[in-house]
Predict the 3D structure of the following.
Amino acid sequence: MKSRFLHGAALSALLLTSTAYAETPGNTLVVAKAIDDIISLDPASNYEHSGTETINNVYEQLMQFEPEDVTKLVGGAVESWTVSGDGKTFELKLRPGQVFHSGNPMTSDDVVFSLQRMVKLNKTPAIVVAQFGWKPDNIEKLVVARDPMTVELAVTADLAPSLVLNVLANNIFSVLDKRLVLEHETDNDLGAGWLRNNSAGSGPYVLKSWRPNETLVMDANPNFRLGAPKIKRILIRHVPEPASQRLLLEHGDVDIARSLTPDLMQGVAGNPDIAIEESVEASIQYLGLNQKFEPFKKPEVVKALKYLVDYQGMADSFVKGQWAVHQSFWPKGFDASMDKIPYKLDVEKAKELLAKGGYPDGFTVKLNVRNYSPYLDMAQSVQNTMRLANIKVEINATDLKQMVTAYRGRQHEITHSAWIPDYRDPQSHAFAFIQNPNNADDSPDKTVAWRNAWEAPQDVRELADAAVKERDTEKRMQMYVDLQERLQDDSPYIFMFQGMTRIASRKNVQNISIDPANGVLYYRLTSK
C-alpha cells in the first residue's frame, strides 16, 4: 500500500533542496528550529527544551495543560483525584477507555510501571521527585495499583498538595505503554535504549523518526481521546541559524520559524504573508559559576562578576524582543515573582570586589556556550565587559549536547545556561538552584546547585525547607520572594534575562498554542 504521506527521508530531502519550492504540503506543518539539544526522547531521561516539546505532544501526563487553555491545570490520563487529610496520599482515577498508540488499553499497571521505572532508572529528571521521598528502594511501596483504574501515590515529606499536583504535570509523569516498552527491553534497561528515539504514548501525536541534528517527525494519532489533530504530520527541521530560518520562511519552505533574532523579526514584520506570535516565557538565562574553580570560592569574586555584565546593553540590542533583564531565579508573570534588579555594569565596583577577594589582577576563565547566535553574541559581550576588570574569558563554543554533558558532569568553569520550570510553582526553581544534599561528584541528586558545586548557607536551606511545607499560600509565596533576594546577593549564579517566545509563521497557519512556562508548542489544534 502506498503511503498517503511522504516518508520522513523523502520529505526531508525535498525540503533540503534549493529549488523554488514555495509551499509546504497541506497536511504537513514544517517547523525550523534548533533541535541539537535532544539527547533522548525517553520521558525518564529527557531534560531539554526540544525533547520536552516532543514529549508533550506524544505522551499524556497524569496532570497537564491543554492547548485550549495553557494556563489551567487539568487531569490528563487522570480523570479525578482525592487527597488524604495529611496531604501525603493521592488517589488517582484513570479515564476509562484510554488506549495507547499501539492499541493496548491504558490501565493503572501502566501508570505504576511508568513511575517506578522513572525512579529506578534515576536519570537527571528524577531530581524532580526527590522531594517526594521516592527512591529506587521504596518506590514499589509508595506507588501502587489499587485496581485496574486506580493508582495510589504516597509522598514521605510534608508538601503542599497543590505543589504535588503541579509536579504531576511534568514530563516524567508521562504514561508509558508497559507492554510495548518491555517488548523492546535489552539487558534489563527497561526499554531505555529503544525509547531514546521511539515512543510508547497515548498523546495526540506519534513519534515517527528522529535524526539527530537533522529532522524530527511526528504523525497524528487519529484515535486521540480529544479528537484527531488538525495537522497530520509535524516535520521539525534542525535549522540553527536564524538567518537561514528567515529565508526558508519567506520562501515558503517552512511554515514556522522558531528563533529569529530581533533584527530578522523586524525584517519579516512587514511581509503580508507572515504573522508574528508573542508570549511571555518562563525561561531564565543565567551564568553558572563552578565553585570548584579556585577564584569562585571567594564570594567577593563571584559578586564582582555580577557587576561585569552589560545586562541592559544586551537587552537593548541583539536580544531585544527575545529576553528582558531579569535577575532572580523565578520568572515574572507567575506567583512569587520579583522584579528587583540590583546589578548593572559597574567596572570600578567589580575591581574593588576582586581586590577584596584576592584577585586584583584578574584571572583567566573558560565560558561554555552554544555555538551560534545569539548565544555567541552574549558570550562575546560578557568577554568584552569582563576584560575591563582584567578577567580574561576564553569562549568554548560547542553544540548544546556537548555543553549540557559537560555541565551535568561539573566539567565547566562558567556555563551559559537556561532553566525553565519543571512545574508551575516557585519550588521548581528553588529546589534546582538551592538544594544540594550531597556535593560529592557521584551524588545522585544532580541539581543546578550540585552542577555548580554550591552548598547554600544553612539559613537559606532552612527557609527553602520551610517554604515547601507551608500550607498558607500567601505566606509561602513570600518565602520564595525572600529566597530570590538571598540568591541575588549570595549564590554562584548570574541571573541575566527572562525569555520571550516570538514565533514567525506563514499567515495560513492558525491556532499556535504556546506554553508560557516553557515556550513549547502544542500542535494538536494547529491548522493550515
About this structure: The longest strand covers residues 274-289. The chain has two domains: 8-236+507-522, 280-501.
